[in-house]
Amino acid sequence: MPSVVCMVVDDTPALAVEGLTKRHGSGAGAVDALVGVDLTFARGTFTAIMGPSGSGKSTFLACVAGLERPTSGRVLLEGTDVTGWDETRRTRMRRDRIGFVFQDFSLIPYLTAQENVALPAKLAGRRAEKQAVQLALARVGLASRAEHLPSALSGGQQQRVAIARALVAQPAVMLADEPTGALDSATAREVLRLLRSAVDELGQTTVMVTHDPLAASYADKVVFLVDGRVAGKMAAPSVDAVAAQLAHLDQLVGAGR
What we know:
The protein is α/β, with parallel strands linked by helices. Helix content is about 35%, strand content about 25%.
């Protein structure tokens, strides 16, 4: 009798938050930056987080990354509750399991492109694999610029180095905070195509905060935050649909509460 092989598919989300709440201050002056946020991010998906200034977008990223402790609720990274981890464990998590892409690139000015990509491994006390660093730079089209300092690179090239640095460790989640905010429109599209290809070709789970409908249109889904609450979601977003929804966020507020 032939043997039967059973394949087990791990459908644990790359990232999930449950009842995530963050309150700043206390008493009458307390401000709720997040209020009972429940979200799940499946592996290999690209999600844009949008909302007006003060909606809780940056606080959400900070709590997910372990830079801030939520007042209540849980953050689960690949099924593991990391909410109560001490600072040492959260630092390791940020270094090994989360990739970051920032609006200001956050490159070390006196390190070359390849040294910036290798930096997280060195900070972890590991020897950076030269081939992995080279492959990461090649993936973002900068193999020939590996020895250049950030000052010799354009803004778009610096952001591509930052993406290579975020991807080289194959993180569970990549967090992008306004990654095109400092770029012109043509360069922004190049960066967004790279983020999209990381999802499609590498299976990279990506969560991006943005105010730009064009950037959001590269995502699989948009989550709208208003006053710290999830006010709505949109699948398969288009530029026009996102822009129209942003113009009527007051309607989402009423529907989301």
